[in-house]
């Protein structure tokens, strides 16, 4: 079944692995490939119901939100990974070389005779161009727009007309474009579809600041409550490398046995699966509540965390709600040993966009 004149485990083996993908439709193909995409996984792998209805909230979350009679949402702070993007220029160049190889082996011009597997795969159209270099794809814009609309449904008192919203983004174009798509989806959720000019005037004040790096947000969420709340909603757009270090710092997805080449098959149920943690459009939400009927001042503020729109238990208690004071005390070491002002300083040359 292989191609003549080639070494084992080289191109022919790759072609044989890819051949079954030609025998199924696009949706089935995505399901077959999705477990191997890692951080390039689609968000719908976590929420299959979104394939049917991108605005569906799915089944109600047990314990979320807290009962409105006792606690009301005070602030939503979120770290969001950009939506689905195009391959980078480097990957596109690799794909172009592979496509050229398929064409040559398919018609036999590459030497070693014709290869039937390569011939079938050579019908694939290589349409990626270098200029799309890592930019947000149309699917990524839909990811962000739909996420904004779902969050507006989950947090109607915070994401409401006239509220002050703060948007922060990495300087990468796909993150800035994700912020734009999110805001557009939010406008549609709050005001419906209308002319561009009117939409721009419907929001409360929003600010976008461009950071040269994604890392500085790691401690920012817990720090925010130490200051007066200037915005009830803070949405920060970054990368997988923004979210994954933050979650690791917080103690999540720690496996007892490290993953390596020799135990891969036995680690299929491991906690650390990046495709399930930080797919495209991944989001980490911190919801701060004010509880007026608290028995003491320290019980007045509570926090819930959602990862990809699912409640995330706190590592130190296993519970799905925590006193803010306990959250801050648990991460006190990180707070005290992070040179926040230095790490998060902004180069004055970086542009600031107000809209």
Compact description:
With 355 residues, the protein is of the alpha/beta class. It has helices at 11-18, 26-33, 89-107, 116-121, 138-154, 173-191, 196-202, 220-224, 240-249, 274-277, 324-330, 332-336, 340-343, and strands at residues 71-81, 165-170, 206-211, 233-238, 283-291, 301-307, 310-311, 322-323, 352-354. It is globular.
In the CATH hierarchy, what is the architecture of the largest domain at level 2?
A: 3-Layer(aba) Sandwich
Give the biggest beta sheet. 9 strands, mixed
- Show unreliable segments: 4-10, 212-219
Given the structure, what is the number of helices?
13
Rounded mean pLDDT score: 81
In CATH terms, what is the fold-level topology of the largest domain?
A: Rossmann fold
**Number of structurally distinct domains:** 2
Q: In terms of structural class, how would the helical and strand content be classed?
A: alpha/beta
Helix residue percentage: 25-40%
Regarding CATH, which class of the largest domain? Alpha Beta
Shape: globular
Subcellular location: Membrane
InterPro entries: His_Pase_clade-2, His_PPase_superfam
GO molecular function: acid phosphatase activity; bisphosphoglycerate 3-phosphatase activity; inositol phosphate phosphatase activity
Signal peptide: 1-26
């Amino acid at each position: 079944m292989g191609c003549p004149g080639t070494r084992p485990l080289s191109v022919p083996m790759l072609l044989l692995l890819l051949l079954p993908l030609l025998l199924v439709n696009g949706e089935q193909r995505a399901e077959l490939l999705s477990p191997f995409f890692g951080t390039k996984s689609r968000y719908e792998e976590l929420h299959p119901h979104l394939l049917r209805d991108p605005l569906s909230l799915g089944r109600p979350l047990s314990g979320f939100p807290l009962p409105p009679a006792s606690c009301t949402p005070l602030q939503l702070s979120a770290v969001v990974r950009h939506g689905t993007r195009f391959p980078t220029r480097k990957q596109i160049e690799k794909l172009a070389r592979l496509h050229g190889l398929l064409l040559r082996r398919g018609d036999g011009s590459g030497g070693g005779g014709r290869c039937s597997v390569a011939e079938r795969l050579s019908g694939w159209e290589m349409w990626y161009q270098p200029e799309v270099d890592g930019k947000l794809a149309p699917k990524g814009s839909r990811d962000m727009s739909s996420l904004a609309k779902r969050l507006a449904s989950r947090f109607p008192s915070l994401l409401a007309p006239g509220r002050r919203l703060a948007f922060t983004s990495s300087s990468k174009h796909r993150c800035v474009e994700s912020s734009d798509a999110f805001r557009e989806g939010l406008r549609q959720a709050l005001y419906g579809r209308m002319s561009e000019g009117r939409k721009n005037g419907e929001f409360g004040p929003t600010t976008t600041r461009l950071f040269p790096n994604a890392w500085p947000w790691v401690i920012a969420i817990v720090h925010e409550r130490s200051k007066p709340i200037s915005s009830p909603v803070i949405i920060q757009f970054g990368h997988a490398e923004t979210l994954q270090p933050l979650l690791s710092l917080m103690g999540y997805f720690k496996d007892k046995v490290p993953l390596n080449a020799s135990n891969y098959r036995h680690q299929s149920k491991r906690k650390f699966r990046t495709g399930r943690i930080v797919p495209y459009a991944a989001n980490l939400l911190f919801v701060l509540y004010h509880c007026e009927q608290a028995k003491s001042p320290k019980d007045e503020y509570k926090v819930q965390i959602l990862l990809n729109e699912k409640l995330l238990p706190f590592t130190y208690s296993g519970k799905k709600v925590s006193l803010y004071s306990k959250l801050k005390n648990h991460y006190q070491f990180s707070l005290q040993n992070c040179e926040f002002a230095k790490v998060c300083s902004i180069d004055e040359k970086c542009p600031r966009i107000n809209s």
